[in-house]
Amino acid sequence: MSTKSNIQLRNIQQEDLQIFFDHQQDQEALSMAAFTAKEPHNWTAFQEHWNKIMADQSIVIKTIVNKGQIAGYVLSHSWFGEPEITYWIGREFWGKGVATAGLHQFLEIYNTRPLFARVAHDNSGSIKVLQKCGFQKTGEDRGFANARQQEIVEFIFALT
Predict the structure, then answer these.
(1) pLDDT digits 0-9 by tens, 47-103
(2) What angle (nearest 5°) sits at the alpha carbon of residue 37, between those of residues 31 and 43?
(3) Fewest CB atoms within 10 Å of the CB: 35, 115, 146, 149?
(4) What's the CA gap between 86 and 96, in Å, rounded?
(5) What's the structural domain count of the chain?
(6) Exposed/middle/buried for 121, CB within 10 Å: 0-12, 13-18, 19+?
(7) What is the pLDDT of residues 33-47, one digit of tens each?
(8) Rounded to an integer, what distance in angstroms lies between the CA atom of residue 2 and that of residue 58?
């Protein structure tokens, strides 16, 4: 059975938040994501942030489920003006095609184009996911990465 057939997207549920928070506690994942919350270990701040996300009707969000386990999420927002996607996959699912399959399915139901993504310049796994889903690098920016406590280069990708 292929990875793609093992992946399902579903509407987010309140109980998913604890798993998303647990994923966010992984120091390696935080460093790789780089652009994270200022206080990633603060459950109250995490809940408040996610309650805002879930209440915002302009945000499309799906939980990624792999073989019955919550693997992460994918969402689209326009916080910075243009439509952008973001996703987070628990480290135990890295390198197994879960992120690629989840993002691919999301792009089948969310067809706003152009669609942008930003990724830390050295996050090779996420760069590969974006490229496999048809995104192309269109630029670079610099931003403060909370998880690394420094300014770093981020690549900008677009799907047209």
Answers:
(1) 999 999 999 999 999 999 999 999 999 999 998 899 999 999 999 999 999 999 999
(2) 110
(3) 149
(4) 18
(5) 1
(6) middle
(7) 989 988 999 999 999
(8) 32
Read off the tokens for 55: 């209440």
DSSP string, 12-66: --TTHHHHHHHHHT-HHHHHHH-S--SSTT-HHHHHHHHHHHHH-TT-EEEEEEE
Cβ neighbours for 116, distance < 8 A, ≥ 6 positions apart: 82, 83, 84, 85, 156, 157, 158, 159
Please provide the size of the chain in residues. Answer: 160
State which amino acid sits at residue 51: N
What number of other Cβ atoms are within 10 A of residue 85's Cβ?
23
Has this prediction a pTM greater than 0.85?
yes
